Amino acid sequence: MQEIQLRDAKATLSAVLDQAKAGHPSVITRHGRPEAVVVSFEEWQRLSQVPSFGRLLMAAPLEDDDLPTRQGGLRDVGL
């Protein structure tokens, strides 16, 4: 991933966008610190549609015997 200073990114924005579209994202820095990443729109869409871990678990094709069961049930802890 290419790192480019903000002032250079401004001057070469068209080239930065062409690189992102070609699959080469750029990290834009300001005063030496990373501030933003330029990626292609297609890559942004792919990354923004990643399902949550909970949704992945809910979508898993589980059978009744796939998950362990607790032996002995719940305990009375005297609360």
From TrEMBL:
UniProt xrefs under SUPFAM superfamilies: YefM-like
The record's section on NCBIfam families has: phd_fam
The UniProt similarity line reads: Belongs to the phD/YefM antitoxin family.
What does it do? Antitoxin component of a type II toxin-antitoxin (TA) system.
Protein name stated in the entry: Antitoxin
Q: What is the scientific name of the source organism?
A: Pararoseomonas baculiformis
Taxonomic lineage of this organism? Bacteria, Pseudomonadati, Pseudomonadota, Alphaproteobacteria, Acetobacterales
